[in-house]
Amino acid sequence: MYFPEDNCPFYRVTYLSNYSPDVVPDATRQYSLLAEISHSPCKQVDTARVVEDTVQGMINTQLLRERDRDDIVDTFLIERDYTYPTPSLERDHALATVLPWLESKGVYSRGRFGAWRYEVGNMDHSVAQGVEWANRIVLDAATDELTYQARRGC
Questions:
Q1: Is the CB of residue 134 less than 8 Å from the CB of residue 103?
Q2: How far apart are CA 58 and CA 45, in angstroms?
Q3: Which range of residues forms the domain containing residue 26?
Q4: What residues in the chain have per-residue pLDDT under 50?
Q5: What is the pLDDT of residue 83?
Q6: Exposure pattern of 71-109 as b/e (b: 16+ CB <10 Å)?
Q7: What is the domain count for the chain?
Q8: Do residues 65 and 97 both lie within one domain?
Q9: In this structure, are 134 and 101 located in the same domain?
Q10: DSSP label at 25?
């Protein structure tokens, strides 16, 4: 879920336990939330307060109720400098070399991050890349569009 509100530090929250009940000890009574919070020199985040600010933001946005604080079993903070691929002018030329090399090793890199084409890697594109790969492998179809574009330097 995306949150444009200014009463929470996060921009997106995912119910991880919806992906797998195994991420919590007891899926009948517990759930797991992942909050994503961006920061930069222009958008400072106080790491000493960010967990508390996140819980308060979840209350502010009605993901949690105030009384739910007592039921929080654990929190975990992980910080990454970069989490999204950043396109560069050299990327497509590099992909024309990297993708065929990976495939020669049996690695078919697809999807939003695997193709290094985040800007055209939403769900429908990712599914299309999977279908093209399956057709290529199972039906011995022509080279899929992603590899074709990479070889052309597009």
A1: no
A2: 17
A3: 12-71
A4: none
A5: 75
A6: eeeeeeeeeeeeeeeeeeeeebeebbeebeeebeeeebb
A7: 2
A8: no
A9: yes
A10: S
Does residue 78 lie within any of the structural domains?
no
Q: Name which of 80, 37, 79, 78 is nearest 57 in CA terms.
A: 37
Determine the pLDDT at residue 82: 77
pLDDT digits (tens, 9 = 90+) for 36-68: 999 988 989 999 999 999 999 999 999 999 999
For the entire predicted model, the pTM comes to 0.65
Q: What is the pLDDT of residue 145?
A: 57
How big is the CA angle at 17 (ends 13 and 20), to the nearest 5 degrees?
A: 130
Q: Which two tokens stand for residue 70?
A: 């007592």
Instruction: Examine residue 3 and state whether it is found in any structural domain, yes or no.
Output: no
Q: Are residues 55 and 95 in the same domain?
A: no
pLDDT of residue 45: 92
- Same structural domain for residues 102 and 148? yes
Distances (CA, A) of 57 to 11, 65, 85, 141, 143: 10, 11, 27, 50, 47
Q: What is the pLDDT at residue 133?
A: 85
**What does the alpha-carbon distance between residue 130 and residue 1 come to, in Å, rounded to a whole number?**
25
User: How far, CA to CA in Å, does 34 sit from each of 8, 19, 103?
Assistant: 14, 12, 33
**Same structural domain, 67 and 100:** no
